[in-house]
Design goal:
The complex is a heterodimer of chains A (496) and B (642). With 496 residues, chain A is mainly alpha-helical. Helices cover 75% and strands 3% of the residues of chain A. Chains A and B meet through α6, α11, α13, α16 and α17 of A and β3, α5, α6 and α24 of B.
Chain lengths: 496, 642
C-alpha cells in the first residue's frame, strides 16, 4: 500500500469511471468518491510516513520505487517522498476534494469538467512524488495543459485571453526550464554513460560554479513564473479571475506551489553555489513582489483580483524565504506554501459561493452580506484573518518562520529586505479589512436583489475542511514544522 | 523556576477559550440569555482561580527570603526555529502577572454581569458573549506569557477581539470604520513590535522573559555594544518594542484609534478600552523593565517623555469634547500617559523603584475607577439614549445610584483622598519629582485639568439644566447596578493596599509613605479644577461658551483633536491610496502587463510576416530555393577563394 503510484492510479481510475457515467449525479458522486479516496490515502501515507520515520528510517526519501523508462538516456521514473512533498501531496488532495465539493452544481459539461480537473490534479500529484527531473517536467506540462481548457471553456469574462496568456507564459517558462533541466542532466556526471535525471544523483554531482551560474537563473525563473515572481506574475490576476471556482482554487492553492517547490527542490538544492551568489537579485525581485502585490491588492475592486494580487504577495514570501537559505526560513517557505494553499483555496471557494448569490464580484456593489449569509461571512472573515497572519491560524506560523529566519542574516541588505517584507503585514491588514468592511459589514444594500440562502451542505463541508486544516496548523504547528525541518536538512547542508 | 503547585493556573485562560468555542459554535441555537449565563459562569470559575492564585502567591508561598519569585507554572514547546531559538507557551507568575490576573478577571466579570442587563434584547447577544470570552482568554494569555513571542501572539489576539467587539454593531458604517481603524493603527505599531522582537532575539538569542530580564544574565549585555545611528542596538530594539506598546496603549501619535473605538458597546469600552487591553502597553514595558533600565536607559527616558506629553495632550482635548464616552476615552489616554511617565522615571532597586510601583498601582486603581466611570456612562446612555453631554442634565434625581457611583469615580480619578486615585497619583508625582522637574510640572498640571474635565462631565450630566426627555429616564436593572456598586466599593478602598509591599521592579518589597509635601499641592490643584467645573457647569450658564470663545483658535484646535485625525486621513487616503496603491495597480496593468502583451503582439506580427513564406505556391518555393542556392554557392565560392 505504500507504493506512491496509488496517488496516480486513484485519479486515473476515477477518470476512467467518469467516462462511463452518464448523468450529473453520477459524475459528481464518482468524482467526489475518487478524490475522497485520494484524500484518505494521503492521510494514510502521512501515517505510514510517520511510522517509517519513527522506526528509524533516515533516508532522504522514503517509499522509493524505480521504473525504467528510456534506458539509453538513463531516464528512470523514480518516486519517493519526504515531509515536504508529502505535505504538498496532502494539500493537493485537500484542495482537489474541496474543489469538487464546490463544483457540486456544475451545470455546463460536468463530465468533461471533472475529467479535466482530475487530470490537472493528477499532474500535480505526479509532480510532487517524482524525484526525477524528466518526469517532473512531464507532470508539470500535464498540469498546465488542462488549465487552458478549463479556463477557456468554463471560465468567465475575458476567458480566451486569460487562458491564452496563462498558457503562453507558463509555456515560455517551461521552455527555459527545459534548457535548465537538460543542462543539469548534461553535467550530472562526468561519465557520459552515467548521466542521470535523478535529483538525488545530481545532488551528488559537483557541477562547476560557472555552469551553475549559467543554469540557475533559468531554473529559478522557470519555476518562479509559476510562483508569480515579479515581474512575470501578470498571468495570475487574469488567470485567476477568469477561471471557474474550483480551478482558481487548484490554481492558486496548488499549481503555484509547484513553482515554490521546484525552486526549492531543483534550483536551490541542485545549484547551491550559484544560489548563494545570485540570490541577491531574486531577493530584490521577491521583496518587490511582496510589497507590490499587497499594494496592488488595495486598489482592486474585483474580489478575485484582490486575491490574485494577494497571492502575488504571499507567494512572493515563499520565494523570498527560499532565498534566505537557512533552516528557519526554508521551513517557513514550505509552511507558507501549505498555509497559502489552504487559505487561498478557501478564499476562492468563498468568492465563488458569494458570486453565485450576488452575481457580482465588485465590492462596491455589495455590503452587509453578513446579515443574509452569516456562515459564509464568518468563513470569509476567518480566511481573511489567516491571510493577515493572525496567531492561531496557519498564516502566522509561516510568516514568523520566514521573518525570524530572514532576520538571522546579520548584514544590512538582508535586514532591510526583511523589514520591507515585514511591512507587508500592515498592508495586508489594510486590504483584508477593507474587503471585509465593504463586503460583509455595513448596511445591507437593498437596491440589489441578492439571492438569499446561506451555504448548502457541500459548501459548508468544503469550508469546514479547509478551516479546520488552517486552524490545526495554526494552533499546533510543532508536529508539521519538526517533520519539515528534518526533511530540509539535506537542502540546508548543500546551502551552508 | 519551575513550580508544579501552580500548574492549575493554565486553566484560568483555557476555560475561557472553551467558553468562546462553545458559545461561538452553539451560539445561534442557544437562547441569548443562556449564552450570557454560560459565559459569566465560566468566567466566575476563572475569577475564583485567579483570586486563589493571588492569595497563595502573595500571602502563602510567593516569597522566598523576602523576595518574590518568578515562577514558571506551566511550559510547553510551541514552535522551534533552531535548537536554541524556540517559542514556548507557558505561564509565568510574578507580582505583576498575578496582579493583572486579578484586575482582568474582576473587571471582566463585572462587565459580563453588567452586560446581562445592558445588552438585553440586542441582536447578536451570543456573539457578544463569545467575543468577550475570546478577549478575556487572550488578555489573560498575554499577561501570563513566559516569553515575548507568546506575548506577541496574544497581543494580536486581543487586537482582533477588540476589532470584533468595536464592530459589534456591524451594520453601522461608523462602527465598521472605527474597528478597521483600531486594527490597522495597532497593526502598524505591532510591525514595530515584531521587528523589535526580531532584533532583540537576534542579539540575545532568546525569547524567554526570565533569561531576557535577568539583571545578571548575559542577555542584557549582548546588544549594548553594537551601535547603529548613534544608539545601541538594544536601544533600537527596545524603542521598536515600545512602538508596539504605544500602539496598544494609545500613546501620541498612535492614539487616534481609541476615541473612535467608543463605537463599540459601552461595557466593551469599559473592559477593553479602559481597564485592560489599553494598559497592555504599560504592562509590556513593566515586564521588560529590567531590559529597559539596564540595557536601554535612553529608551526609558523617551517613554517617560512620550507618556507625560500624551497625558497633557489628551487631557486638554478631553476638556472640549461633548460626547461623554469620548471624554472618558481621552481621559484614559491621559491616565495611561501618567503610568508610562511613572515607568519612564523609575529606578530599579529598593525605594528608587517607586515609579514602577506607582505606575502598576495606578494601573490597578485606574482599572477599577475607569471601568466604573464607563459603566456609569453606559447606565446614563441606557437611560437617555444619547451620548451627547449637552443633551443630558439634571439626572441626579432619576438615577440616584448611578449618580453616586459616578461621583465616586470622578473623585477617584481626580485624586481626592481617601479614594484610590489619590494614593497612586501621589506616588507617581513623588517619583517624577525626584527625577525630572519638567515632567513633574506637566503631570501636576494634568492633575488639575483632569479634575476639571471629569467634573465638567459630572455636573453636566447630573446637575445642570433639567432637560426634556422622550421617555422618563429610569435607573438601570439590578445586574447593572450590582456591577456599579461593586466597582464603587473597590475604587474606594483599593487605594489602601500597600502596593510597594507587593509589586517592585527588583521583586523585593519596600515600604512607602504618603509624601504630603507633594500630596497637598496636588489635592489643591485638583480642588481648583473641581471648583472651576462647579462654577461653570453646575447650572446652565454662558460662562463656558464665553471662555471657549475667548480662547478662539486654541479651543477650536483642541476640539478638533489637534487635527491629528485629518493628518492620518491625508496620509492614508491621499498618499498611500492615491499615490502609492493606485499607481502600482495602474503600473501593473499598463506597464508590466502590456510589456507581456507587447511581446505577444510582436511575436504575432513577426509570424504574420513570416507566414508569407509558407504560401503553398510551388513557383514561389522553387524561386526561393533557386535563389537561395545561388547565394550559398556564391558565398561558398567567395570563401574558398580567400
Amino acid at each position: 500500500m505504500n507504493n506512491l503510484l496509488w496517488l496516480l492510479a486513484i485519479p486515473l481510475v476515477t477518470i476512467f469511471v467518469l467516462i462511463f457515467c452518464n448523468d450529473k449525479r453520477q459524475y459528481r458522486l464518482s468524482a467526489a468518491f475518487g478524490m475522497g479516496l485520494q484524500l484518505l490515502y494521503s492521510f494514510y501515507l502521512v501515517f505510514r510516513y510517520t511510522t517509517e520515520r519513527s522506526s528509524g528510517n533516515i533516508e532522504q526519501m522514503v517509499f522509493m520505487h524505480e521504473y525504467k523508462w528510456f534506458d539509453s538516456l538513463n531516464i528512470v521514473f523514480t518516486t519517493g517522498i519526504d515531509a515536504i512533498s508529502l505535505a504538498l501531496v496532502v494539500l493537493t488532495a485537500v484542495v482537489t476534494f474541496t474543489g469538487i465539493l464546490v463544483s457540486w452544481n456544475m451545470e455546463k459539461l460536468p463530465k468533461e469538467f471533472f475529467i479535466s480537473l482530475i487530470t490537472l490534479a493528477t499532474g500535480v500529484f505526479g509532480f510532487f512524488i517524482t524525484i526525477d527531473l524528466f518526469t517532473m517536467f512531464l507532470f508539470y506540462e500535464l498540469a498546465v495543459i488542462p488549465m487552458y481548457i478549463l479556463i477557456g471553456i468554463w471560465g468567465s469574462g475575458k476567458k480566451e485571453y486569460a487562458a491564452m496568456k496563462l498558457t503562453l507564459m507558463l509555456m515560455g517558462a517551461s521552455a527555459l526550464l527545459l534548457v535548465g533541466i537538460l543542462g543539469l542532466y548534461t553535467y550530472s556526471s562526468t561519465d557520459v554513460n552515467l548521466l542521470s535525471f535523478n535529483i538525488l544523483d545530481i545532488a551528488n554531482a559537483n557541477i562547476p560554479v560557472d555552469i551553475q551560474k549559467f543554469f540557475f537563473p533559468m531554473v529559478f525563473i522557470g519555476f518562479g513564473v509559476l510562483g508569480a515572481l515579479f515581474p512575470l506574475h501578470t498571468w495570475s490576476p487574469d488567470g485567476h479571475s477568469s477561471a471557474p471556482t474550483a480551478v482558481s482554487m487548484l490554481h492558486a492553492g496548488v499549481l503555484m506551489k509547484m513553482g515554490g517547490y521546484g525552486c526549492l527542490r531543483v534550483a536551490m538544492y541542485l545549484l547551491p553555489e550559484a544560489a548563494k551568489e545570485l540570490a541577491w537579485i531574486f531577493i530584490i525581485l521577491t521583496t518587490i513582489s511582496i510589497v507590490y502585490g499587497a499594494f496592488g491588492a488595495i486598489a482592486q475592486k474585483d474580489l478575485k483580483y484582490i486575491n490574485a494580487y494577494s497571492s502575488v504577495s504571499h507567494c512572493g514570501l515563499v520565494l523570498f524565504a527560499i532565498l534566505m537559505m537557512n533552516q528557519t526560513a526554508l521551513n517557513g517557505s514550505v509552511l507558507q506554501m501549505i498555509s497559502h494553499g489552504l487559505m487561498t483555496a478557501l478564499f476562492f471557494a468563498l468568492i465563488g459561493m458569494i458570486y453565485e448569490r450576488t452575481h457580482t464580484r465588485d465590492i462596491r456593489l455589495m455590503g452587509g452580506l453578513m446579515k443574509i449569509m452569516p456562515f459564509l461571512g464568518v468563513c470569509y472573515m476567518i480566511a481573511g484573518f489567516a491571510s493577515l497572519g493572525l496567531p492561531g491560524l496557519s498564516g502566522f506560523v509561516a510568516e514568523i518562520n520566514v521573518f525570524v529566519g530572514a532576520f538571522m542574516h546579520t548584514d544590512s541588505f538582508h535586514r532591510v529586505a526583511t523589514v520591507i517584507a515585514v511591512s507587508s503585514i500592515v498592508i495586508t491588514a489594510v486590504y483584508i479589512l477593507r474587503v471585509i468592511g465593504a463586503l460583509l459589514l455595513g448596511p445591507l444594500d437593498v437596491e440589489h436583489e441578492f439571492e438569499t440562502g446561506d451555504a448548502r451542505w457541500y459548501e459548508r463541508w468544503a469550508n469546514i475542511i479547509l478551516i479546520v486544516s488552517i486552524a490545526a496548523i495554526g494552533i499546533a504547528p510543532l508536529w508539521l514544522s519538526d517533520a519539515l525541518i528534518k526533511s530540509l536538512q539535506p537542502i540546508i547542508q548543500k546551502l551552508q | 523556576m519551575m513550580n508544579d503547585s501552580y500548574s492549575y493556573t493554565v486553566a484560568i485562560p483555557l476555560i475561557l477559550f472553551f467558553s468562546f468555542l462553545i458559545i461561538g459554535l452553539a451560539g445561534g441555537k442557544l437562547k441569548p440569555i443562556v449564552s450570557g449565563i454560560f459565559g459569566t459562569f465560566f468566567l466566575l470559575i476563572s475569577t475564583a482561580l485567579s483570586y486563589y492564585t493571588a492569595y497563595s502567591y502573595f500571602f502563602v508561598d510567593g516569597k522566598s527570603n523576602g523576595v518574590y519569585q518568578q515562577l514558571i507554572a506551566y511550559d510547553s514547546l510551541w514552535l522551534q526555529f533552531t535548537d536554541k531559538l524556540q517559542i514556548h507557551v507557558g505561564v509565568l507568575l510574578d507580582p505583576i502577572s498575578v496582579m493583572m490576573l486579578v484586575v482582568i478577571t474582576t473587571v471582566s466579570l463585572m462587565v459580563h454581569i453588567y452586560s446581562l442587563g445592558y445588552m438585553k434584547g440586542e441582536v447578536g447577544f451570543s456573539r457578544y458573549y463569545s467575543f468577550l470570552s475570546l478577549f478575556t482568554f487572550s488578555m489573560l494569555g498575554l499577561v501570563l506569557s513566559s516569553n515575548i513571542f507568546q506575548t506577541y501572539i496574544f497581543w494580536e489576539l486581543v487586537g482582533v477581539s477588540s476589532y470584533l467587539l468595536i464592530g459589534h454593531y456591524y451594520e453601522r458604517p461608523s462602527a465598521v470604520a472605527a474597528s478597521k481603524k483600531a486594527f490597522i493603527v495597532t497593526r502598524f505599531a505591532d510591525m514595530g513590535f515584531l521587528v523589535g522582537i526580531l532584533l532583540l532575539s537576534s542579539f540575545t538569542g532568546t525569547f524567554d522573559f526570565l533569561k531576557l530580564t535577568d539583571p545578571n544574565g548575559s542577555a542584557l549585555t549582548q546588544g549594548s555594544a553594537i551601535s547603529f545611528l548613534g544608539l545601541s542596538v538594544m536601544t533600537w530594539s527596545m524603542l521598536l518594542v515600545f512602538m508596539g506598546a504605544a500602539g496598544k496603549s494609545a500613546m501620541f501619535p498612535l492614539h487616534i484609534w481609541l476615541p473612535d473605538a467608543m463605537e463599540g458597546p459601552t461595557p466593551v469600552s469599559a473592559l477593553i478600552h479602559a481597564a485592560t487591553m489599553v494598559v497592555a502597553g504599560v504592562y509590556l514595558v513593566a515586564r521588560l523593565f529590567t531590559v529597559y533600565f539596564f540595557a536601554a536607559p535612553d529608551a526609558l527616558i523617551f517613554i517617560g517623555y512620550v507618556g507625560t506629553f500624551t497625558s497633557l495632550f489628551a487631557a486638554v482635548i478631553a476638556c472640549t469634547q461633548t460626547d461623554i464616552k469620548r471624554v472618558l476615552a481621552f481621559s484614559t489616554i491621559s491616565q495611561i500617559g501618567l503610568m508610562m511617565g511613572g515607568l519612564g522615571v523609575s529606578g530599579y532597586s529598593g525605594p528608587e523603584g517607586l515609579g514602577y510601583t506607582a505606575s502598576m498601582f495606578h494601573l490597578f486603581n485606574h482599572a477599577m475607577f475607569k471601568a466604573l466611570l464607563f459603566l456609569c456612562a453606559g447606565s446614563v446612555i441606557h437611560a437617555v439614549h444619547t451620548n451627547e453631554l449637552w443633551d443630558m442634565g439634571g439626572l441626579k434625581k432619576h438615577l440616584p445610584v448611578t449618580h453616586i457611583a459616578f461621583l465616586i469615580g470622578c473623585l477617584g480619578i481626580s485624586g481626592v483622598p481617601p479614594l484610590s486615585g489619590f494614593f497612586s497619583k501621589d506616588e507617581i508625582l513623588t517619583a517624577v519629582f525626584e527625577k525630572n522637574k519638567l515632567l513633574f510640572y506637566v503631570q501636576f498640571l494634568v492633575a488639575g485639568v483632569t479634575a476639571f474635565y471629569m467634573f465638567r462631565l459630572y455636573f453636566g450630566i447630573f446637575w445642570n439644566k433639567q432637560r426634556e426627555y422622550h421617555t422618563k429616564p429610569h435607573e438601570s436593572p439590578f445586574s447593572m447596578l450590582f456591577a456599579l456598586i461593586f466597582l464603587s466599593i473597590a475604587s474606594t478602598f483599593v487605594g489602601l493596599i500597600p502596593f510597594s509591599e507587593f509589586v517592585t521592579p527588583d521583586l523585593k518589597p519596600f515600604t512607602s509613605h504618603i509624601h504630603w509635601a507633594i500630596a497637598i499641592p496636588a489635592i489643591i490643584i485638583a480642588v481648583i479644577g473641581l471648583v472651576l467645573a462647579f462654577v461653570m457647569y453646575r447650572k446652565e450658564s454662558d460662562l463656558s461658551g464665553r471662555l471657549s470663545g475667548s480662547l478662539g483658535i486654541l479651543y477650536r484646535a483642541a476640539y478638533k483633536k489637534f487635527y491629528i485625525d485629518e493628518i492620518y486621513l491625508f496620509i492614508t487616503k491621499n498618499v498611500i491610496f492615491k499615490h502609492i496603491s493606485a499607481p502600482i495597480a495602474w503600473f501593473d496593468r499598463n506597464v508590466v502587463d502590456n510589456t507581456m502583451n507587447g511581446i505577444a503582439a510582436i511575436t504575432n506580427f513577426v509570424s504574420m510576416r513570416i507566414r508569407a513564406f509558407q504560401s503553398g505556391q510551388l513557383q514561389q518555393y522553387a524561386y526561393v530555393m533557386v535563389s537561395g542556392l545561388v547565394i550559398i554557392v556564391l558565398v561558398a565560392l567567395y570563401f574558398m577563394k580567400t
